[in-house]
Amino acid sequence: MFRCLNLLLFCFISYSGTPPVGTTPVSVTEKKGGNVTLTCESEAREISVVELNRLSENILVCEKEECKSENDRVFKEGSCDVVIKDLIYSDAGKYTLNVFYNNDQTEVKRLTLKYHLHIHDAISVKKGEDLKLDVLLINADKVERNSSEGWTEVWMRGHGVNSDRLTVSDETLIINEFTVTDTGTYRVLDYEGETLITVSVTESGSGSKGKLDTEDNTHNEQLTAVYWFWGVGLPVILLVVVGVIVFVVIKKPKCLNRLYSPPTDQNTKEPDL
Ligand SMILES: *[C@@H]1O[C@H](CO)[C@@H](O)[C@H](O)[C@H]1NC(C)=O
Ligand SMILES: *[C@@H]1O[C@H](CO)[C@@H](O)[C@H](O)[C@H]1NC(C)=O
């Protein structure tokens, strides 16, 4: 009886010390190249160790951002937050953060937090080029693309690719000779069906070319305007000005007479009257 109680008590203590195994991970989403913070929000004082695990491997967490280690993209911030900066596709997935602390007690306690990191990206590809997506991570199970029919499978571990325009090389999925029909959203799922990576793929060729064309056009229009002004407009204006001057100079007497004679006549006549 005592033994049983002891066992129950033991179970209770270990249960309260570590959270339930099925704790749902906190979802965090950040774009490729960005920085993400795995927040621990612990009120605990005297945190002794912060330990980050992933795929049952321990990731070295630097104490400060400037820390020079082989893995200087991961560092501690504040009391126990962990920052992963300059995110790459392969950072996507599940993380476990163990925070060891003691609150003025001799017993060291552990706080376990779980995260699921989703990375998104947007890329544009020129028509005819090969699109290389290094997304076939060790924890990736399938790659899907959404179309008008919904999500369709593009690659699956153990089954490979579903089109002869696709090839796989190491961890890279290659879409050969990209065409407009390859555009869309690609997502990489893990074994539990959770999204690891989302990549929105657009075609850059036509878009940027069109933009260049319009830029060229406006430039050309400006050039044409300049040509018309200097080549035609200005000479015409000059010609008109010269013509007016010549006309005024040559016809000066008559013009002046016509313009000024009535008043002069009046002036000369007035005294006569
Ligand atoms: C990520 O963090 C580093 C250093 O803290 C900073 O220089 C960089 O600009 C950040 N990147 C983004 C995308 O915010
Ligand atoms: C694909 O998914 C994206 C984002 O979920 C959505 O904006 C887009 O309309 C979808 N495309 C198709 C063809 O369903």
Write the layout of secondary structure elements.
Layout: H1 2-17, E1 26-31, E2 36-38, E3 47-54, E4 57-59, E5 74-77, E6 81-84, E7 93-101, E8 109-125, E9 131-133, E10 140-147, E11 150-156, E12 160-161, E13 166-169, E14 172-175, E15 184-190, E16 195-203, H2 205-250, H3 252-272
Parallel strand pairs: 1-8, 8-16
Antiparallel strand pairs: 2-6, 3-4, 3-7, 5-6, 7-8, 9-14, 10-11, 10-15, 11-12, 13-14, 15-16
Residues 146-148, 184-185 line the site of one 2-acetamido-2-deoxy-beta-D-glucopyranose.
Describe the structure.
With 273 residues, the chain is α+β, with helices and mostly antiparallel strands. The N terminus and C terminus are likely disordered. It is elongated, with a radius of gyration of 39 Å. It binds 2-acetamido-2-deoxy-beta-D-glucopyranose (2 copies). One 2-acetamido-2-deoxy-beta-D-glucopyranose (NAG) binds next to β10 and β15.
Question: Percentage of helical residues?
Answer: 25-40%
Strands, count: 16
- Give a list of the ligands: 2-acetamido-2-deoxy-beta-D-glucopyranose
Tell me, rounded to a whole number, the average pLDDT.
77
Query: Major sheet: size, sense and barrel closure?
Result: 10 strands, mixed
Tell me the overall shape: elongated
